[in-house]
Design goal:
CATH topology: Alpha-Beta Plaits
Structural class: alpha+beta
CATH superfamily: Cation efflux protein, cytoplasmic domain
Shape: elongated
Number of helices: 2
Radius of gyration: 15 Å
Largest sheet: 4 strands, mixed
CATH class: Alpha Beta
Order of helices and strands: EEHEEEHE
Strand content: 35-45%
Number of strands: 6
CATH architecture: 2-Layer Sandwich
Length: about 120
């Protein structure tokens, strides 16, 4: 699945991996987010932190009727108010994707896969 846009000069095609990488980069810069996690929790219930090159494993991009639908899987820091961290992360990801892609983002769903103590 790609994000397509037609202009007077031709067409623009942005891959799903590029959108996922952008969304992953934005959310990991958000306050209270330790990092991205894989969509599948490991068998012992531990969430694996992903490195920058693997952000696509923690992001699902769908093209819905009202616009893009993004699912993000994250690990948050211990001691923060999770609802506030997630709300601010959703706003930040939505804003940056709409600004960068010039396309409506209908949903940003955040799934907290774990909580980590950060030293």
């Amino acid at each position: 699945m790609t994000v397509e846009k037609k202009t007077n000069y031709g067409s623009i095609s942005v891959s799903e991996e590029a959108v996922a990488s952008l969304a992953g980069g934005v959310i990991t810069e958000s306050y209270g987010v330790v990092g991205m996690a894989s969509k599948q929790i490991l068998k012992d219930g531990w969430a694996e932190l992903l490195k920058k090159e693997n952000y696509t494993k923690g992001v699902v991009v769908r093209n819905g009727k009202a616009g893009l639908e993004i699912d993000l899987y994250i690990v948050v820091s211990f001691g923060v108010k999770i609802s506030e961290v997630v709300t601010e992360a959703q706003k930040k990801v939505k804003y940056m994707l709409e600004k960068s892609l010039s396309q409506e983002v209908a949903q940003v769903n955040v799934f907290v896969q774990g909580v980590r103590v950060v030293a």
